[in-house]
Amino acid sequence: MYNICEKTASPRFEESLNTVVMLLTSLLETKDIYTSNHSQHVAKLAKEIAKKLGMNKKETELVYVAGLLHDIGKIAVPAHILQKPGKLTRTEFEDIKMHSEIGYRMLQTTGSLFTSVLPMVRHHHERWDGTGYPGKLKGAQIPRGAAVLAVADAYDAMVSNRPYRIARVHSEVLEEIKECSGSQLSPQIVAVFLDNYQEIKNSVMAEPLSKRISPIDWL
């Protein structure tokens, strides 16, 4: 469960916030069958990477929450684009690219509830070389949590079935992650992920999928 203040939030309030997160992610998964469980996979993977980076409990929980919500803006993207089996047109790709900004704005409307994860949701598609979106942030300009999500998101996307291709084998995916170091992805985070891959994978697989959030003062 998650709360606004570890010592003062009531169980009812914590449960309400968990319900909001579960509702949002379930709405997205209902719209896009290929997104099913993707948010939970990314959240768990990103949390384990964050631990290996030495991030503290609050930081790792923030990364986890952002992982659950990172693609929430895709609710506003037409289903025929999300599930298109062929190559996207330039216009369709531009529509897809809007999801991180849309998700950011959606979560802004909740007031202070998701303030701490907004930068990660907004910037998880930035590239280390500055050619990503929406802000074309480069290197250390990218929020660290967003850079962690970028690695987790890229990995899970490649090992999962998508409308336009079947899942790729893990060895190929790890090699591509390595090749993307310094261009698309943070070199430090890629190195930590690859060096600890088996342990991270085992930790992720040991826990059941969940959209629930641990109690912590993360706002």
From TrEMBL:
What is the name of this protein?
Answer: HD-GYP domain-containing protein
List the Pfam families.
HD_5 (PF13487)
User: Any idea where the HD-GYP domain is?
Assistant: 13-209
PROSITE patterns membership: HD, HD_GYP
**In what residue span(s) does the HD domain sit?**
35-158
Ranges that cross the membrane: none
Q: Which Gene3D superfamilies match?
A: Hypothetical protein af1432
Under the heading NCBIfam families, the entry gives: HDIG
Recorded hits in PANTHER family, A to Z, give: CYCLIC DI-GMP PHOSPHODIESTERASE PA4108 (PTHR43155:SF2), CYCLIC DI-GMP PHOSPHODIESTERASE PA4108-RELATED (PTHR43155)
